[in-house]
Design brief:
The complex is a heterodimer of chains A (216) and B (77). With 216 residues, chain A is mainly α. Chain A has helices spanning 10-24, 32-47, 62-73, 79-89, 92-115, 157-160, 166-179, 183-186, 198-211, and strands at 138-139, 148-149. Chain B is mostly helical and 77 residues long. The longest helix of chain B has 24 residues, at 51-74. The chains are: A mainly alpha (216), B mainly alpha (77).
Chain lengths: 216, 77
Amino acid sequence: MIRDVPHVRADLVMAHRRSFDHVVAAGSLLTGAERRRIAEVAVAAYLDESPSPPWERPYGEPLLDATYRLSRHAGTLTREWYEALVAELGEPLCWVEAVGVVCATVPVVALARAIGLPQPPIPDAVPGQPTGLQARVIESGSLNWVPVAAPADQVAPVVQALSALPAEWTNLWQLAAAQYMSDRQMDDPRWTRGTLSRAQMELVAWRLALVRECHF
Amino acid sequence: MLSWSSAAEGRQDGAGLEFEAELLEFTDAIAGYDDAALTEARSALERAAGIEFMVDAAAVAANFEMMTRVADGTGAY
């Protein structure tokens, strides 16, 4: 959702615009061009009318094949699969960054499709080298496969999931605040934007996660 | 979360919510890959509850297309 659209909240439009700008800028370990390619694969996988099965590797590149599988067959990922991927990549934070890019891309595509708008184009990549920005101390926790910012396991696993890479973490939660609610608003079971009640919001959330076979 | 928010609204597990059937049909269509079914479900929810409601419901679904992938991709359990 990049352009202004009637009936769509301005904060939601802005959150999606920020997310696509984030996708094409240099990340911690990947260039803007590499991140844009990951986003292209995520879009193609999400909208694929004839998807390849989860066990196939349609791109012949570990990070792109993993991106395709996360974007289309996320419920099939296992710890063994993740460990094999990291052995191929040699750097677990590359995967954390790719997850951040997928999570920055898929909701933009999903919302446009859901409300019947054309898919927004992914902007051109911003030139520049990777920033190298990471959490000051990174460690393994017990609540996620991926390494996270220290101290591990002090917050919910989805909250610490991208914490090793602060730019990915920040983008995920700015999206959540516009699409759903902020972490502070979650503390109030009656919080609502004025359209859906909180229970209606949770009904949609529960059903989507159920269909995706995701029980976090 | 559904149980918690339903209890706060004096309901049980989301049962009897206004536009419940239309919301479930719309969410299922978003998670599915049948564009005709999605168009039909979108129109049904919009007729029942209005376009702003439909867009906000779609935004929540989009959020959980994101959250399910961050959970599955990072082994967040």
